[in-house]
Design a protein that fits this description.
Elements: H1 3-26, E1 45-51, E2 57-62, E3 68-74, E4 86-90, E5 101-109, E6 112-119, E7 129-135, E8 149-150, E9 159-167, E10 170-177, E11 187-195, E12 198-199, E13 205-208, E14 223-231, E15 234-241, E16 249-256, E17 268-269, E18 282-291, E19 298-305, E20 321-326, E21 328-329, E22 335-336, E23 350-352, E24 358-360, E25 373-375, E26 385-390, E27 393-398, E28 404-407, E29 416-421, E30 431-437, E31 440-445, E32 450-453, E33 466-469, E34 478-480
Antiparallel strand pairs: 1-2, 2-3, 3-4, 5-6, 6-7, 7-8, 9-10, 10-11, 11-12, 11-13, 14-15, 15-16, 16-17, 18-19, 19-20, 21-22, 23-34, 24-25, 26-27, 28-29, 29-33, 30-31, 32-33
C-alpha cells in the first residue's frame, strides 16, 4: 500500500468511527449483528438459558461450590451477566441433597416452570441422582419452588445432566448415567416423558457411549451433558466428552425428526469433535442452545476456562465461565459450531486461515461494487459481518457499509470479483457454509458454485478476494473471530 493510501485509509477510518458512534447513539444496531461479551457470566458452568415468550432470558447453571440452584433473568443475553441471581434451592446440611448440586436445566412446560438437576448426599458426593422442582409463577425468580423430588430412571447409579425437548408433540428426557455393563464413566440415555416430572422407564434407550479416543482423554470414557436442538427436520443432541479440563469438547448426535427416536438405530454419532479448545478458550463444553434477541438467530451457550490447567483440579477449580456465540448451519443442514471466539472479541470478523487477515471493506466504501479485501484483523466496523440464515443460505451484511457480500455481476468464472452490493435477496448474495473440519469453513456462492478465495495466496494487507472452484485449501478456509 502506498503512503498516500495508508494516510487515506487512516483518515477515512477515523471519520467512519466517529460517524459510527453517532449512528449508534441515534439507533441501536440490528439485533442479528451478534454483540455478546465473552466470557458472558463469570464462574457459572453447565449453563442452561431459556428464552421465554415474555421476552426474557432465564438462566441457571452450576455454581462453584455446588451448593445451590439459582435462577436469573434478563431481556438481553448481555444483561444476564449483571442480573441478580435468585436462589431456588440451597443444599441442606444433611440428607440426599447435602453434597453437590450439579448442572440444573430450566424449562417451561404446560404452564409451569421446572428445574431439573442432579444432587448427592455429603457422605457420598458422587452418588448423584436426578431431581425436579416446580414453580407456577409467571416469573420463576419469584413465587415458590416445590420441594425437590426424584426423577426415576429405572436403575440406580451415578446420573446427571438432565435435559428435555419436544418433537412432534412428544416430550423426551435425556440424561447421562453410569452403566453397570461397562467401565466407562457415563453413557447417555433417552426416554419418553409421561408428565413433566416422570419418564416411561420401559422406553429408555442408550443413545451414546464412549467409542472414540477423543471421548476418553484423561478418563475411562465420558459422554455427558446432552443438549438438544430441533431444526431442519432433524433432532441434534450435542454432548460433552473427556476430562473436564482443556481436553473437554463437544460431540454431536443426530436423528431424523420423523424417525422413531426411541430406536437406537435412528441415532448417528459424528466421528470427530464439533467444538474444542482454540483461541485461548480451554475445554469448551456442557451448555445449551437459545436464540438471539431477534428471536431467530441460533446461539450456542457453553462454558470454558481462560487457561489450560485447572487448579487444584478440574472439579474444584471455580473458573469455568459461561460463554455465548452464534451457531451456524452448514450446507448439509447440520449445525456448524466453528471455533470458540477469543476473549474480548465482539461482533467477530471473518478471518482467513492462510493469511490470518480479515475480510474488509477495504476503502470504507459504501458504494455498490466496492471490492472486499484482506486487512489486519481489528475491531473496526468494516470487518464486522452479520450472518442471516435464510432457506439454507447466509446473507452476509457488512456493518459499516450496510451492504451484502455479493458475487458482482453474477459471474461463474474462476477469479471473479467479490464485493458489496445493496442487499436484495438475490442468489448472488446467497452463501452456504461448508464445514471443513476443526472449526474452519468455506463460503460457497449460490449463483457461481464457487468459494470465497484468497486467489493469490497473498497475506499482505489489501490482498484481493475473489471466487474460485471450491477445493478446501487454506486460501478458502475461514473462521469467525
Amino acid at each position: 500500500m502506498s503512503i498516500l493510501a495508508r494516510i487515506r485509509r487512516r483518515t477515512v477510518a477515523a471519520l467512519a468511527v466517529a460517524a459510527s458512534v453517532l449512528a449508534l447513539v441515534a439507533a441501536p444496531a440490528a439485533a442479528q449483528f451478534i454483540d455478546v461479551p465473552n466470557p458472558l457470566v463469570q464462574q457459572r458452568a453447565d449453563t442452561a438459558i431459556y428464552k421465554h415468550t415474555d421476552g426474557y432470558y432465564y438462566m441457571t447453571a452450576s455454581v462453584p461450590d455446588y451448593k445451590r440452584v439459582e435462577v436469573r433473568r434478563s431481556q438481553t443475553l448481555e444483561g444476564l451477566a449483571t442480573a441478580t441471581p435468585v436462589t431456588a434451592l440451597t443444599a441442606p446440611s444433611t440428607g440426599n441433597l447435602s453434597g453437590w448440586i450439579w448442572a440444573p436445566d430450566i424449562q417451561y412446560v404446560d404452564g409451569a416452570w421446572y428445574l431439573y438437576f442432579s444432587a448427592s448426599p455429603s457422605t457420598s458426593q458422587f452418588a448423584q441422582r436426578l431431581y425436579w422442582m416446580r414453580n407456577t409463577s409467571a416469573d420463576p425468580t419469584t413465587g415458590t419452588w416445590t420441594a425437590p423430588a426424584r426423577v426415576t430412571t429405572g436403575w440406580e447409579s451415578f446420573q446427571l445432566d438432565p435435559a428435555s425437548f419436544t418433537v412432534n408433540g412428544t416430550r423426551y428426557f435425556t440424561w447421562a448415567q453410569d452403566s453397570p455393563s461397562t467401565s466407562y464413566n457415563s453413557h447417555m440415555y433417552l426416554a419418553r416423558m409421561t408428565s413433566p416430572t416422570t419418564i416411561d422407564t420401559a422406553s429408555a434407550i442408550e443413545i451414546a457411549r464412549p467409542t472414540y479416543s477423543w471421548e476418553m482423554e484423561g478418563v475411562a470414557g465420558v459422554v455427558e451433558g446432552p443438549s438438544p436442538l430441533v431444526r431442519n427436520g432433524k433432532v441434534f443432541i450435542a454432548y460433552s466428552a473427556s476430562a473436564t479440563d482443556s481436553r473437554y469438547k463437544l460431540g454431536l448426535l443426530s436423528a431424523s425428526a420423523s424417525a422413531n427416536l426411541l430406536d437406537p438405530a435412528s441415532w448417528t454419532k459424528k466421528s470427530t469433535p464439533v467444538f474444542q479448545t482454540a483461541n485461548g478458550v480451554y475445554g469448551p463444553g456442557h451448555g445449551s442452545f437459545t436464540v438471539a434477541e431477534d428471536g431467530v438467530t441460533d446461539m450456542l451457550i457453553f462454558h470454558a476456562r481462560d487457561y489450560a490447567t485447572p487448579t487444584p483440579d478440574a472439579l474444584t477449580d471455580p473458573n469455568r465461565h459461561t460463554r455465548a456465540q452464534q451457531l451456524y448451519w452448514s450446507d448439509t443442514g447440520d449445525p456448524f459450531f466453528g471455533q470458540p471466539i477469543a476473549n474480548g472479541t465482539r461482533q467477530p470478523g471473518i478471518r482467513g486461515q492462510y493469511s490470518d487477515k480479515c475480510v474488509d471493506d477495504y476503502e470504507w466504501n459504501r458504494a455498490d461494487g466496492a471490492l472486499v479485501r484482506l486487512y489486519t484483523c481489528s475491531s473496526n466496523s468494516v470487518q464486522k459481518w452479520e450472518f442471516t440464515y435464510v432457506n439454507g443460505y447466509y446473507r452476509i451484511k457488512n456493518l459499516y457499509a450496510g451492504k451484502c457480500l455479493d458475487n458482482l455481476g453474477g459471474a461463474t468464472a474462476n477469479n471473479s470479483d467479490v464485493g458489496l452490493w445493496t442487499c436484495n435477496g438475490g442468489s448472488n448474495q446467497d452463501w452456504s457454509v461448508q464445514d471443513r473440519g476443526n472449526g474452519w469453513f468455506s463460503l460457497r456462492n449460490r449463483t457461481s458454485g464457487l468459494c470465497l478465495d484468497n486467489y493469490e495466496w497473498n497475506a499482505a494487507n489489501g490482498a484481493r478476494l475473489s471466487m474460485y472452484a471450491c477445493n478446501g485449501t487454506g486460501a478458502q478456509l475461514w473462521r469467525r473471530g
